[in-house]
């Protein structure tokens, strides 16, 4: 069965990672496939924004190391919001080191990401050891990994071969792989895995540093995105709450169009 035409609720049973199951479930229940990239640098900004848009998103994506006033109680409050509004937390750490270092970066240091993030992003570049180490650190099965198979930025160095080898590397760690960060539906076939796609705005455009934006129609209907990451399209809007609803509605409409064939 082709992944992109199956509804989220029918894909739950194919998922081998618990976070993927939860995410399919949340999307089907809340009727939203919007992931907010909350790239703000003050904790109050992030928490206030989530108070307003929490009900419209299936996941929040953080870059914990851009926050100026990080304190431990921030993650406590973030978790409370995630529980209240039923969304997951993805820390976009893009781990890319040897397995031993990554296992320390995951569980130690100032941020102790493994304690609060439901899932994290990981590069396949260093080889399989990175997944082996995370598999050991994530000794509870309620955590997940989005492996980077493609990027949205202009001129990135990922090749077709790199992408294919990334997907086959993931197949050995099915219990921790939630899905792939990628741009195209042919990247993988398994309906139990989730396509997370960043680089989305309502109009096609670019930023000044090579980020390429595609429309909801393009990424969801043509390119197979399951969870869609929107950052500045919402955070830089005059009224982020109104804009989050606009993205949620546009993205869900495209998903319905896709599964309706
Ligand atoms: F893996 C990727 C990628 O290929 N492109 C991205 O843009 C991740 N991102 C992240 O999504 C990036 O680090 C930002 O946090 C977010 C996109 O934010 P924007 O404001 O919508 O451009």
TrEMBL record:
Pathway where this protein functions: Pyrimidine metabolism; UMP biosynthesis via de novo pathway; UMP from orotate: step 2/2; Pyrimidine metabolism; UMP biosynthesis via de novo pathway; UMP from orotate: step 1/2
E.C. designation(s): 2.4.2.10, 4.1.1.23
Residue stretches making up the Orotidine 5'-phosphate decarboxylase domain: 33-247
Active site: 92 (for ompdecase activity), 94 (for ompdecase activity), 97 (for ompdecase activity)
GO molecular function, one term: orotate phosphoribosyltransferase activity
Residues that bind substrate: 39, 61, 152, 211, 231-232
Keywords linked to the UniProt accession: Decarboxylase, Glycosyltransferase, Lyase, Multifunctional enzyme, Pyrimidine biosynthesis, Transferase
Keyword Lyase attached: yes
Record GO biological process: 'de novo' pyrimidine nucleobase biosynthetic process; 'de novo' UMP biosynthetic process
Record carries keyword Coiled coil: no
Family the UniProt entry places it in: In the C-terminal section; belongs to the OMP decarboxylase family. In the N-terminal section; belongs to the purine/pyrimidine phosphoribosyltransferase family.
Protein name: Uridine 5'-monophosphate synthase
Organism of derivation: Bombyx mandarina
Origin organism lineage: Eukaryota, Metazoa, Ecdysozoa, Arthropoda, Hexapoda
Residues of the full protein shown: 210 to 470 of 473
């Amino acid at each position: 069965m082709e992944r992109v035409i199956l509804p989220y609720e029918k894909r739950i049973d194919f998922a081998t990672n618990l976070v993927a199951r939860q995410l399919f479930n949340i999307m089907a229940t809340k009727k939203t496939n919007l992931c907010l990239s909350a790239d703000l640098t003050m904790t109050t900004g992030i928490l206030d924004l989530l108070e307003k848009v929490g009900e419209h998103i299936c996941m929040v994506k953080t870059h914990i190391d851009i926050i100026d006033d990080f304190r431990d109680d921030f993650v406590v409050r973030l978790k409370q919001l995630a529980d209240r509004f039923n969304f997951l937390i993805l820390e976009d750490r893009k781990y890319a080191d040897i397995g031993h270092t990554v296992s320390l970066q995951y569980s130690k240091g100032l941020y102790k990401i493994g304690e609060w993030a439901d899932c994290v992003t990981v590069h396949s570049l260093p080889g399989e050891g990175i997944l082996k180490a995370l598999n050991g650190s994530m000794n509870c099965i309620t955590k997940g990994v989005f492996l980077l198979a493609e990027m949205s930025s202009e001129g990135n160095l990922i090749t077709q071969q790199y992408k294919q080898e990334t997907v086959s590397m993931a197949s050995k760690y099915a219990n921790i792989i939630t899905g792939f960060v990628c741009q195209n539906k042919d990247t993988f076939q398994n309906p139990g895995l989730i396509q997370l796609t960043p680089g989305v705005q309502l109009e096609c455009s670019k930023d000044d540093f090579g980020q390429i934006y595609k429309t909801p129609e393009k990424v969801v209907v043509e390119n197979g995105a399951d969870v869609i990451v929107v950052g500045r399209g919402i955070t830089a809007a005059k009224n982020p709450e109104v804009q989050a609803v606009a993205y949620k509605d546009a993205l869900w409409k495209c998903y319905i169009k896709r599964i309706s064939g």
